[in-house]
């Protein structure tokens, strides 16, 4: 190994080496997860409750058959022995399912997530309404800024809904000028 090459090893090379190690780690973890998934989907492990129920039912059937079969050999042709109906109490699926550890925690977290989603939806609606209101105010302020200072009061009165006669009397401008200002405001409102 060349010692001079190690001496010139800078921070960029160290960063590239760290990234390469992290990528290798991610690939190894991905392959392990994939192998675990394949092993999990390939294996068919029966449910312990089902196994216990089947064993209990089979044991009960065997006991019933043992009671019905006589001890002495009979020379008569084999007559099928009717199977006795197992009692319903022997089957655990009639009982409520056992509680899964952490199930209450999972249900509480799911409820909390649903509540957070609802709150987030209402906050999104509020933000949207505020954004639209801010856009309207910005449009109105821009309209006022683009007007000559002489006509700013007239423009403000027109935005408030005053008619041309009231604007001309209040601002001291001609009625034609006031009508022009009102028309400008209406045009901007129709476009916005």
Account of the protein in words:
The chain is mainly alpha-helical and 192 residues long. The chain is built from seven helices and no strands. α5 (152-160) packs across α7. The two termini are 72 Å apart. The mean pLDDT is 77.
Short summary of the structure?
It is built from 7 helices and no strands. With 192 residues, it is mostly helical.
SSE inventory with pairings:
Blueprint: H1 3-7, H2 11-42, H3 48-68, H4 103-145, H5 152-160, H6 164-171, H7 175-191
Helix pairs in contact: 4-5, 5-6, 5-7, 6-7
Radius of gyration: 42 Å
The separation of the N and C termini measures 72 Å
Work out the number of β strands. Answer: 0
- Portion of residues in beta strands equals under 5%
Give me some keywords for this one.
single chain; 192 residues; mainly alpha; 7 helices; elongated
């Amino acid at each position: 190994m060349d010692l001079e090459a190690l001496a010139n090893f800078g921070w960029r090379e160290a960063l590239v080496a760290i990234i390469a190690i992290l990528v290798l780690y991610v690939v190894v973890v991905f392959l392990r997860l994939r192998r675990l998934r394949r092993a999990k989907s390939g294996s068919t492990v029966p449910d312990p409750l089902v196994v216990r129920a089947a064993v209990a039912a089979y044991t009960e059937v065997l006991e019933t058959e043992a009671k019905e079969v006589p001890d002495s050999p009979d020379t008569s042709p084999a007559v099928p022995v009717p199977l006795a109906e197992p009692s319903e109490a022997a089957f655990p699926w009639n009982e409520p399912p056992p509680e899964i550890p952490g199930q209450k925690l999972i249900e509480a977290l799911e409820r909390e997530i649903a509540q957070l989603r609802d709150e987030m939806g209402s906050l999104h609606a509020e933000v949207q309404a505020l954004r639209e209101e801010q856009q309207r105010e910005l449009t109105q302020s821009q309209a006022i800024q683009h007007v000559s200072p002489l006509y700013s009061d007239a423009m403000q009165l027109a935005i408030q809904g005053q008619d041309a006669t009231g604007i001309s009397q209040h601002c001291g401008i001609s009625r034609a000028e006031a009508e022009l200002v009102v028309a400008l405001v209406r045009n901007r409102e129709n476009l916005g």
